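pinned: reference chain
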Amino acid sequence: MEGTNLNQIGVSFKGSGSYVPNQILTNQDISKRVDTSDEWIKSRTGISERRISGIEEDVSQMGYKAALAAINMTKWDINTIDLIILATSTPHDLFGSAPSIQERLGAKNAVAFDLTAACSGFLFAVITASQFLKTGSYKRAIVIGSDQISSYIDWNDRRSCILFGDGAGAIAIEATLKYDNLIGFDMRTDGQRGCFLNLPSQINEDVITENINYSSSSFSSIQMNGQEVYKFAVKEVPLIIENLFKKTNYSSEKIDWLLLHQANQRILDSVGDRLNFSRGKILSNLSDYGNTSAATIPLVLDEAVRNKKIKQNDIIATSGFGAGLSWGAALFRWG
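pinned: its structure tokens
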């Protein structure tokens, strides 16, 4: 098997899980709120519907259900899990939501923390967890992408409200001496273009005492320059994947699946065309869920694994991209 090195610790991708809320918001539903239509939304984004969290749901609850599904697939003893990383930009607790998932799972031996990189978050978290495992410090890790974007949408802004939904996905990763299924990766950020997609805080000046001012803070809704984000994605994503192919001596012909962050179907098609992937090799469930930020990649992955589309030893090229601006790519073998 390619990538084998018995003198080094590698990683193996052992299981997947996902969860989406029951509430379905269709394009027709949105057209009752803002001036748009099902045809307009589908033709520009590829999205037909998205899931919206109920009042009783939050990022930790969704992430817990996705993580538990991944653990059940592996049949791991929960006490053997060493590390839990939650990729999210919408935590229900700004001090960290991952410990809540650890508690719900009963994973008493695991350290848990959040990682924030918006739509690149899950990919960055997978790469981060893999580095911990490769050092020999930990043996088993759960990586979760969970976001509740609906809480930060201006539902009167038709430019953004049509794009996003809520959900969670997770994968289980294990250290191994037999092979390394993380073939290669790369990560990038460009803060100069961060203003194209952000969720800024709102600073309200207030007074503690007569001589002491302070800023009380809350958050605005998502702000996005859709044209600039589109241009960024269709340029940078193919480049980072092409460079990764060069570094790892791979090409599109050797890849079974292209798995991209689910932002816009036109982006998926454009990147696939640039990299010479047939449409049949591009994984997508964007129509059903919209952009769930850090959850999109593991949602698609879990769906394809459970439908037996992705099989043992399939090679997957993946890329996350979005706010920051941040983007990255990884090449891995499933299993």
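why pinned: The first helix runs from residue 27 to 31. The first strand starts at residue 10 and ends at 19.
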